[in-house]
């Protein structure tokens, strides 16, 4: 589902003040625009989509008056999530449709959905024309000295009671957007010009909307009520999806999503140009795109995701520059990130190994670390995760390693058979995962089938971006008691989708038909895999992960599958956790991370922002000082030179960014430089020592 253009002016640090009223630019708020009407073929497609949902979706929901009511709310949210286009009288008028959509869609009737869209279009176009006229009027003056606050989050707000209240909201939005731009370093006139360009572009794109796009909005407002991974793909979208599923990726390697007006980074593809370059991060908001080193930035706030992707994609070897609002709330100015497009080398996504030496109990342990970026198995007939990790285990065994760390951080999944094969390297024959279909039939056919290859000490390292097949593997290792799971709670993607053609070429429907369950009977859906020992993270789980989606399938349980348990991990955790927590108290890197996380949470929980320039500047200085203090505390603890002021710190960071941008390189696998791997190695050392003690105690017991 793609959001529409009503989500226009929300920015991270919003502010400013104005000395006029939009009523000065009165235009007819119901000025009529070109009407789009449903096509006959779309009526037939709607009937088939409803039929497929009814027959095949895992979540058995009847399309009735209740679901019709939810559809209306979802559709209005899709069109106007910021609640600043429609007014209360529109919403009251639409209520007459509330319990009719179920019957309409079953009969292929789309007129009411298109009628709501038409009203939205009338108000939206009129609103943009008024704002553009205001920005064009040189008599309009802006000041930034009024004590006023603004809440950019209107998800739970009411629609404006009347046009005058809507005017007030828009004035606040415009003030906020202008001041946000100024705080990022632009002048008032530059900000005003750029804002005018933004609205002009949005108006142009809106006027290019087609009946197919409106139909997709309507259908996806319905499919998302079943779960967030069930979508209707129009013929054009289906073609783009097919292209994206090939093994050759050319671009920057960032998966993008929409969040109201913004294009957000969902995750970075391992070994991609964006990951190698190092500056773009998950949850960053991309607000501008420029081509080449000198191209002019285009403001993309409010754009369709497909149009943003077209701007960012491009031929190998060319440069794209991104203007980004950092997910890190302590970065108060927009970042400019330059990335050279390239073909993503799938060879670089293959599993690789390294040695990590860890001191423990008066001795140095040699640990093998295997990094698995993705569960591959189809792009090289001679290579797969299972084959490659088997070979790496044999090589590590020749080096007399004391234990293994499998690093599944950022691993978004891939081949389910490969997840089973990987599990089989560490456990003897038995089930790996349970799959329950929509008809409640449960299968346990995905199994380990041969004796284990490696039986020594093992840790699986995970984080929020470990998903799908990664969760199946980590969950199996945890349920078998085969090793420790360390890190942070995984994504929680435990559902299975299939693609079905719709109405003889009129697109496809991606539909959820099954759920994954661990052999313990716990679902991986929604909850994810919870580590035995948790490491601190800066990721806000309310923003990223399955649990952040509306209508996500819930976590639940089924009967456990019979399986062996190799170790009672719970017996050793009372020893391992306190030792880990003691290290966390003094480790400079993790003390730094915890302080950063606390500051992030404080800033992200702030609901309103000031619309006064002096207040915002003071807040910005306070954030910069706290950021500097946290950084210097870490540097002092590590014996490094501290920064004299924030400007010195920022200059060093910019220099580092410029160096990374100029020469992005293959990401080296150096476990000793990764604090997460170093601490995981220490946990594994404690685990090995504790296991030896348990064996000795059992041997000494008569």
TrEMBL record:
PANTHER family hit by this protein: CARBOXYL-TERMINAL-PROCESSING PEPTIDASE 3, CHLOROPLASTIC (PTHR32060:SF22), TAIL-SPECIFIC PROTEASE (PTHR32060)
Keywords from the UniProt entry: Hydrolase, Protease, Serine protease, Signal
Highest taxon in the source lineage: Bacteria
Secretion signal, residue range per the UniProt entry: 1-26
Pfam families xref list: DUF3340, PDZ, Peptidase_S41, TSP_NTD
Record has Heme as a keyword: no
Region (Disordered): 653-674
Stored SUPFAM superfamilies: ClpP/crotonase, PDZ domain-like
Sequence similarity: Belongs to the peptidase S41A family.
Biological source species: Cellvibrio zantedeschiae
InterPro entries according to UniProt: ClpP/crotonase-like_dom_sf, PDZ, PDZ_sf, Peptidase_S41A, Tail-specific_protease, Tail_Prtase_C, TSP_N
Residue intervals of the PDZ domain: 242-289
Name of the protein described by the UniProt record: Peptidase S41
């Amino acid at each position: 589902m793609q959001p529409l253009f009503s989500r226009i002016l929300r920015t991270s640090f919003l502010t400013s003040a104005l000395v006029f009223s939009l009523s000065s630019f009165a235009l007819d708020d119901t000025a009529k625009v070109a009407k789009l009407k449903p096509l006959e073929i779309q009526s037939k497609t709607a009937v088939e989509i409803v039929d497929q949902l009814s027959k095949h979706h895992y979540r058995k929901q009847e399309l009735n008056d209740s679901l019709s009511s939810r559809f209306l709310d979802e559709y209005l949210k899709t069109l106007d999530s910021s609640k600043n286009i429609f007014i209360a009288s529109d919403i009251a008028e639409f209520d007459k449709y509330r319990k009719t959509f179920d019957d309409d869609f079953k009969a292929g009737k789309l007129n009411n959905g298109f009628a709501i869209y038409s009203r939205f279009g009338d108000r939206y176009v009129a609103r943009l024309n008024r704002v553009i006229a205001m920005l064009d009027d040189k008599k309009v003056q802006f000041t930034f000295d009024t004590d006023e606050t603004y809440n950019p989050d209107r998800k739970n707000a009411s629609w404006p009671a009347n046009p005058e209240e809507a005017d007030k909201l828009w004035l606040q939005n415009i003030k906020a957007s202008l001041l946000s731009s100024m705080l990022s370093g632009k002048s008032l006139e530059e900000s005003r010009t750029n804002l005018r360009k933004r609205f002009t572009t949005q108006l142009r794109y809106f006027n290019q909307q087609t009946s197919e796009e409106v139909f997709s909005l309507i259908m996806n407002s319905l499919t998302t009520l079943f779960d967030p991974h069930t979508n209707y793909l129009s013929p054009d979208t289906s073609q783009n999806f097919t292209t994206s599923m090939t093994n050759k990726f050319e671009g920057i390697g960032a998966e993008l999503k929409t969040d109201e007006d913004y294009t957000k980074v969902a995750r970075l593809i391992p070994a991609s140009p964006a990951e190698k370059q190092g500056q773009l991060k998950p949850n960053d908001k991309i607000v501008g795109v420029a081509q080449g080193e000198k191209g002019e930035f285009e403001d993309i706030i409010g754009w369709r995701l497909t149009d943003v992707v077209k701007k960012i994609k491009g031929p190998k070897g060319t440069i794209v520059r991104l203007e980004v609002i950092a997910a890190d709330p302590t970065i108060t100015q927009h970042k400019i990130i330059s990335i050279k497009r390239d073909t993503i080398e799938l060879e670089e996504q293959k599993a690789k190994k390294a040695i990590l030496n860890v001191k423990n109990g008066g001795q140095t342990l040699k640990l093998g670390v295997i990094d698995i970026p993705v569960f591959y198995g189809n792009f090289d007939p001679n290579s797969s995760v299972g084959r490659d990790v088997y070979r790496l285990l044999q090589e590590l065994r020749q080096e007399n390693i004391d234990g293994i760390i499998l690093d599944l951080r950022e691993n978004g999944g891939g081949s389910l058979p490969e997840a089973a094969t990987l599990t089989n390297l560490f456990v003897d024959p038995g089930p790996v995962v349970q799959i329950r279909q929509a008809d409640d039939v449960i299968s346990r056919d995905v199994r380990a089938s041969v004796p284990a290859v490696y039986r020594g000490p093992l840790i699986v390292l995970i984080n929020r971006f470990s998903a799908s097949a990664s969760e199946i593997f980590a969950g199996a290792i945890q349920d078998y008691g085969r090793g420790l799971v360390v890190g942070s709670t995984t994504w929680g993607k435990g559902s299975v989708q299939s693609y079905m053609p719709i109405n003889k070429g009129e697109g496809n429907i991606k539909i959820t038909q099954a759920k994954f369950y661990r052999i313990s009977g716990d679902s991986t859906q929604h909850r994810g895999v919870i580590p035995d020992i948790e490491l601190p993270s800066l990721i806000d789980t309310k923003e990223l992960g399955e649990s952040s989606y509306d209508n996500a399938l819930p976590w639940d349980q089924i009967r456990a599958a019979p399986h062996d348990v190799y170790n009672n991990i719970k017996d050793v955790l009372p020893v391992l956790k306190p030792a880990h927590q003691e290290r966390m108290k003094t480790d400079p890197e993790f003390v730094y991370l915890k302080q950063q996380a606390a500051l992030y949470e404080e800033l992200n929980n702030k609901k309103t922002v000031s619309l006064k320039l002096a207040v915002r500047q003071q807040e910005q200085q306070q954030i910069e000082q706290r950021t500097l203090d946290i950084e210097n505390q870490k540097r002092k603890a590590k014996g490094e030179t501290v920064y004299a002021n924030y400007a010195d710190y920022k200059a060093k960071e910019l220099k580092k960014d410029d160096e990374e941008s100029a020469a992005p390189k293959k990401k080296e696998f150096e476990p000793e430089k990764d604090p997460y791997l170093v601490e995981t190695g220490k946990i594994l050392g404690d685990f090995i020592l504790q296991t030896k003690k348990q064996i000795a105690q059992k041997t000494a017991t008569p």
